[in-house]
Amino acid sequence: MLTEILINLFERDLSKLEDEIAAYENEAAIWQVREGIKNSAGNLCLHLCGNLQHFIGAILGKTGYVRDRDREFSDKHVPRQDLLALVSVTRRTVLTVIVGLSPESLSQPFPEKVLGEMSTDKFLVHLYGHLNYHLGQINYHRRLIQ
């Protein structure tokens, strides 16, 4: 079933996100940006959490989360422990909401028009791809900076 697959993938890669942020030897390095790289790992982490908390938490789960996308990229030097706590909360939200989705709700159009009209199941796969894309950038950033 698709919900089980999504739960396994989001669980695995949100755990990897925690591992990547924790793996920086120097906390300040999380926020460094080198030439040719637009975003720090810290900002990508904030962006991923904001994205998932908005689309899965607020839109599908009605959590009341209010996204401030600009701050995802403008905030700097958020302590590592705060980033890790945010990832943990995001993981719980994502998994709780996905577990509660029925097969019927997955086949319905996603409630917010984002990339044209798309079914909820396809949009969740898109969100997973977005997570994985930025997770790869964070991994590259960490290895480049260290």
TrEMBL record:
Pfam families linked: DinB_2
InterPro entries, alphabetized: DinB-like, DinB/YfiT-like
Keyword entries, A-Z: Coiled coil
DinB-like domain residues: 31-138
The UniProt record lists the keyword Coiled coil: yes
Coiled-coil ranges per UniProt: 7-34
Name by which UniProt lists this protein: DUF1572 family protein
Organism of derivation: Chitinophaga qingshengii
